[in-house]
Amino acid sequence: MEPNRAGLSAALSAAVGWLESGGSALDAVESAVMRMEDDPTFNAGQGSVRRADGSVEMDAAIMDGTDLSIGAVCVVRDVRNPVRIARELLDARETLIAGENAAQLAPTRSPAVGPTALAGGDTVGCVALDTAGRIAVAVSTGGLTHARPGRIGDTPLPGCGFYADSFVGGVAATGVGESISRTLLAARTIVALEASQPPQAAVEAALLHLARVGGDAGLIAMDRTGQIGWSHTGDQFAVGWARGPSPILHVEIAGVEDTHG
Ligand code: GLY
Q1: 28 and 18 in contact (C-beta within 8 Å)?
Q2: 3-state SS record for 211-235
Q3: Which of 71, 76, 218, 238 is disulfide-compatible with 232, CB 3.0–4.6 A?
């Protein structure tokens, strides 16, 4: 877990740096996830696991909870930071979810991803709330080890692997994508937050639905006041959080589970 701690700390520092200099929650979550994509400890970007044919295919998404804009990419190859392509899609407002050709939009295309993950890490995610009250979320993954090429999990799917609404909160998921998608874990968490449940209760209640389908998952969540919660069904779950100078606004959280993938 030591590499996880160091990686999360670097990711949090990146997000806090943006927020303390007046940057948006969107910039903060993109920056944190890029840091984790660059760290082979995590199953995203450089640390992405390999598919059954030895290839690397990555999914990522980013969402602005203020206007509900989304950019998401699926099964992209040979890019360093899939979340950056997702951000470009969000900014361009052209496409909600793009497939492998989405990589052509990225000026940062290549260098190719590096070695397989060191410790079988899993999806990374970050939720942030900035001083303007905006909530954003970003997620990124290399998918599941030995999955068939073309397989897409929960990560690029709103309501499954992520969601953000600045009037309500934000959530990011990690774990077995098929299970997360079939039980709509992000959507369940957001609906619970909207009903004024605390984030900790919201994520715990959402994860109970996994019992119907099997598979492990973890969730991080934050409500619009900056309260945070996280929970997981697997053995290990690395999570970090940071708060800025304001007691209510300016809060960040990042997480990754390291038992799956
Ligand atoms: N949670 C990532 C995936 O299943 O692809």
Answers
A1: yes
A2: HHCCCCEEEEEEECCCCEEEEECCC
A3: 218
Cα(148)–Cα(156) distance, integer angstroms: 17
144 CB under 6 A from ligand 1? yes
Q: Is 174 in the pocket of ligand 1 (CB under 6 A)?
A: yes
Which atom of ligand 1 has the smallest separation from the CA of 176?
Answer: 4
For ligand 1, whether the C-beta of 155 sits within 6 Å is: yes
pTM confidence score: 0.91
| C-alpha of residue 17 to centroid of ligand 1, in Å | 28
Is residue 161 within 8 A of residue 60, CB to CB? The reply is no
- Beta carbon of 216 within 6 Å of any ligand 1 atom: no
Find out if CATH 3.60.20.30 is the number for domain 2-254: yes
- pLDDT (tens place) for every residue of the chain, 261 residues total: 788 888 988 998 899 888 888 889 999 999 999 999 999 889 999 889 888 998 889 999 999 999 999 999 999 998 899 999 999 999 988 788 999 788 777 665 545 555 554 545 689 999 999 989 999 999 999 998 889 999 999 999 999 999 999 999 999 999 999 999 999 999 999 999 999 999 999 999 999 999 999 999 999 999 999 999 999 998 778 888 888 655 433 444 444 433 332
Mark whether 123 is an active-site residue: yes
